[in-house]
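Researcher: I'd like a structural prediction for the single chain below. Treat it as a standalone chain; there are no partners to consider.
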Amino acid sequence: MKDLIDFIALIILYIFVFYKKWKDKGKDALLVNTLMYIYISFVLYFTLMPIITSIPFIFNHPYTPMNLVPFIDITMGRGDFLRQVVLNAIMMMPFGFMFPIIKSKESNKLFLKTILYTFLFSLCIELLQPLISGSRSSDITDLITNTFGGFIGYIFYLIFKPLINKILNFIKSK
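Model: Treating it as a single chain, here is the predicted structure.
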């Protein structure tokens, strides 16, 4: 139920802020931006939600600082580290794939921008997790593997760029 409030807020934000703006840019921009918005909404669901109902309680628990020792879970043999590493990389691959499609008109330094924005998106999540919930923690390993996932997504973007351009041109012509 708490997550539902966040999803309603995201839907309202989409309808009243983003939809018209993206629709005015064309069907292709509406499609790509909407897909990115849905993707980001699900990332928020898996990493931060519930957010709105947690706001009154953010100071009711200690803030655990980020673990700054990379891959300590692997070296210490703790938990399901391999699963965590793989899932973190997979989680950010769509960002690395879709971000350059959205920014393709700004082709200057697109790779660096994609990696930077993937890193910043991941950093925001990692810093907010322990603030929103006392049961969540942040980890430098997650930041590294998320950024690597964005890199892999960018490689997939490069591989599929000709097909993506054909699809977007087809949508534009309709």
